[in-house]
Amino acid sequence: MEIKLMKNILGANDEIAAQNRKLFAARGVVVMNLMGSPGSGKTTLLEQTLTRLADKIKIAVIEGDLFTAKDAERIERAGVDVIQINTAGGCHLDAPMIQKVCASLDLPATDLLIVENVGNLVCPAEFDIGENFKAVVLSITEGDDKPLKYPLIFKESAATVLNKIDLLPFTNFNLPAAREDLTTLHPTIKIFETSCTNGAGLDAWTAWLLERTAR
Length: 215
Ligand SMILES: Nc1nc2c(ncn2[C@@H]2O[C@H](COP(=O)(O)OP(=O)(O)OP(=O)(O)O)[C@@H](O)[C@H]2O)c(=O)[nH]1
Ligand SMILES: [Mg+2]
Fold this sequence. Notes:
Layout: H1 2-27, E1 30-36, H2 42-53, E2 59-65, H3 70-77, E3 81-86, H4 95-102, E4 112-116, E5 133-139, H5 146-149, H6 151-156, E6 159-163, H7 175-185, E7 190-193, H8 202-214
Parallel strand pairs: 1-4, 1-5, 2-3, 2-4, 5-6, 6-7
Helix pairs in contact: 1-4, 2-8
The chain binds guanosine-5'-triphosphate and magnesium ion.
């Protein structure tokens, strides 16, 4: 019974996700679904990304959060159009939530729409929202075992951002092992090593985003 219910939920979600994808394509906007654990650095990475790409492309942001508007307020301060979705405790964004807020966005004027999903390594990966590609932020402090323990999100993502690389000397995070596990799970995955504190790796990350947006 439970399996059937989950299948129905995912089926209904996929239908709306396909409608979203069609709308985004018609309006010429590329959409990235940005996922990762709570505190991995998604919003901080976004702030850094927006600063670096502000004079190159027009970006809009959708912020998914359980209850607050804290992240949306941070993005607003970067001078970017942002819409907040509160899931009221829900662990992920789904396609209907995205569809509902799309009317409030100036899609034709937007090159890249970034959706920061709810902080979670499991549920967001299970729900297509109509994005063009997914990316996952994994911070060094979470441990190098996470790709194998939470494989779906890394299999689904076009890129993994290994963030907080500045903290590497203070942890037992095994960078070569993590890279190897990621590549075993997903041979074509792009891996970025970034620090939002000292700026390492951010140019490579933003160059890749620009390239994906132009595609
Ligand atoms: N040392 C270090 N700290 C970082 C880095 N990136 C982010 N942080 C810090 O990590 C904490 C969490 O960052 P956020 O960007 O709020 O994380 P998040 O993934 O958006 O969190 P949720 O939205 O709650 O899921 C903040 O205190 C950031 O300043 C980094 O590269 N290095
Ligand atoms: Mg955040």
